[in-house]
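Quick check before the chapter quiz. The format below is the same one you will see on the exam, so make sure you can read both the input and the output lines.
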Amino acid sequence: MDYTILNNDIAKEVLTIIYYSDKEIQDNIPDDVLKKLTILAADSNKDVYIEKDKSLNEQNLSKESLDYFSALYYLYVANSEEKDKILSSWIAND
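Here is the expected output.
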């Protein structure tokens, strides 16, 4: 996975999203990815909060963090039907 677009705050937001996600999502993201995110997030001073009663799009998260999480979900969690929907969404929003 390419980490060049990540900065410390994005990494912290993505880790927070993963932490509040279902166990299936957490279990499917490789340890080396989580380790790299953790290393980057350690230097972030940003406070990140997730409100469980709101969707990700309603949270105070950067577009970059949502995009990165979307890519992780696509690569490591999504089934073929979900991948088709995600890809269509990316193409429509490009």
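If your answer matched, good. The mean pLDDT is 91.
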